[in-house]
């Protein structure tokens, strides 16, 4: 089935991109997905979509690279995209320990390349860009920012989060200058699907769950009020899919997170009870953990910037969600299912053969990690 795409998803093979693509196809949208190494990745993406119940006949896969000014899109493919109304940029490089240039090529320059491509589309309705919930704080970054300000930013936050701050400022400025309607999505920590727990991402908060499960989390960094909010990947996909139908102003920014997320110590205690392991009894101030040797804390320094008592206004996101008929699934249940899935997949080392969790003949879900087993009815 040959269709004219009305939606473009950049970064469609990533965590958010693939769930968003599935949601858009389910809603009847015709989606063009940009991927690198298209011949190989196209098969992987289509296979994943079919496994998750999405009809991929309205999917067009385009070879592209956001690091290139023209996105590396072939002329024939560029003409096929002239029908696109809504552009989603979910492309990003996300891991800790990035160098500044590597992070900027994708997260800053790449974001601007997607914006410039969107600006050339004759039917463009909106560009929706995935940022981060710790971005766009009380002290906005100018664009272009002076080098001394950028250097301090990258030293303080590390390359990943700093590049997201820089991209946020860049997109706001360039979208205004080019009259591109822009929505910035600032999602919290993305956890697994609310029903199956599946995410496919094993860093950040998932790494903390692994340490908890394997008995390598003797203490928490932060305070009793530390707030690391979460959002399920299926809720985020539904929210993003609804954005172009509801956002009308030239600029919107939505913080998408579940305000019912427990404070971090309570969240960890909830998961410890569910997994049948001991929760850490000690909480150490972030400043102290920063000064301790990394060999002792076994903590990636960049993750410490996410440990804050800050709260975030979700007023605009709540308004859109209400208009779209969306509501967050119960967060405690979602956290438990996500933890189950992480353990079942051995935190990325393997994947269960069926959706959900591994099922034994006795009807219990049995997860084995090292020399320990957790079984749940």
Short description:
By secondary structure, the chain is α/β, with parallel strands linked by helices.
Structural description of this entry:
The chain has 13 helices and 13 strands. The protein has helices at 15-26, 38-51, 75-80, 100-119, 147-157, 159-178, 205-213, 233-246, 264-275, 286-291, 294-297, 315-324, 331-344, and strands spanning 7-10, 31-35, 59-63, 86-89, 126-130, 182-187, 189-191, 219-221, 230-232, 251-256, 282-284, 365-369, 372-376. The longest helix has 20 residues, at 100-119.
Helix content: 40-55%
Order of helices and strands: EHEHEHEHEHHEEHEEHEHEHHHHEE
Distance between the termini: 44 Å
Specify the biggest β-sheet: 7 strands, parallel
* Structure class: alpha/beta
Bulk shape:
globular
What are the SSEs and their pairings?
Blueprint: E1 7-10, H1 15-26, E2 31-35, H2 38-51, E3 59-63, H3 75-80, E4 86-89, H4 100-119, E5 126-130, H5 147-157, H6 159-178, E6 182-187, E7 189-191, H7 205-213, E8 219-221, E9 230-232, H8 233-246, E10 251-256, H9 264-275, E11 282-284, H10 286-291, H11 294-297, H12 315-324, H13 331-344, E12 365-369, E13 372-376
Parallel strand pairs: 1-2, 1-4, 2-3, 4-5, 5-6, 6-10, 7-9, 8-11
Antiparallel strand pairs: 12-13
Helix pairs in contact: 1-8, 4-6, 5-6, 8-12, 9-13
């Amino acid at each position: 089935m040959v269709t004219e795409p009305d939606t473009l998803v950049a970064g469609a093979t990533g965590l958010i991109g693939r769930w968003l693509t599935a949601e858009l196809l389910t809603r009847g949208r015709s989606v063009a997905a940009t991927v690198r190494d298209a011949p190989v990745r196209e098969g992987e993406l289509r296979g994943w979509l079919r496994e998750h119940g999405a009809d991929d006949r309205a999917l067009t896969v385009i070879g592209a690279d956001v690091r290139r000014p023209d996105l590396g899109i072939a002329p024939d493919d560029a003409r096929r995209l002239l029908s696109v109304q809504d552009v989603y940029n979910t492309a990003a490089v996300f891991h800790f320990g990035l160098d500044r240039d590597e992070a900027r090529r994708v997260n800053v320059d790449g974001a601007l390349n997607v914006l410039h491509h969107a600006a050339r589309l004759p039917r463009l309705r909106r560009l929706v860009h995935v940022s981060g919930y710790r971005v766009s704080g009380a002290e906005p970054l100018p664009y272009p920012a002076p080098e001394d300000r950028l250097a301090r930013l990258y030293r303080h936050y590390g390359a990943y989060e700093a590049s997201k701050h820089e991209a946020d400022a860049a997109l706001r400025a360039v979208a205004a200058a080019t009259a591109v309607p822009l929505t910035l999505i600032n999602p919290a920590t993305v956890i697994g699907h609310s029903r199956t727990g599946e995410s496919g991402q094993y860093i950040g908060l998932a790494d903390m769950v692994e340490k908890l499960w394997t008995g390598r989390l003797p203490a928490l960094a932060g305070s009793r009020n530390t707030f690391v909010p979460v959002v399920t990947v299926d809720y985020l996909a539904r929210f993003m899919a609804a954005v172009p139908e509801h956002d009308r102003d030239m600029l919107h920014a939505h913080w998408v997170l579940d305000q019912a997320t427990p404070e971090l110590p309570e969240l960890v205690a909830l998961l410890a009870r569910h997994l049948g392991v001991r929760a850490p009894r000690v909480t150490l101030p972030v400043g102290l953990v920063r000064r301790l040797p990394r060999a002792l804390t076994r903590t990636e320094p960049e993750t410490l910037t996410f440990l804050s008592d800050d709260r975030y206004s979700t007023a605009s996101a709540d308004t859109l969600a209400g208009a779209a008929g969306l509501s967050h699934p119960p967060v405690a249940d979602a956290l438990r299912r996500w933890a189950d899935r992480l353990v079942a997949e051995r935190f990325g080392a393997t994947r269960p053969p069926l959706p959900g969790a591994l099922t034994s003949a006795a009807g219990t879900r049995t997860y084995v990690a090292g020399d320990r087993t957790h079984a749940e009815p």
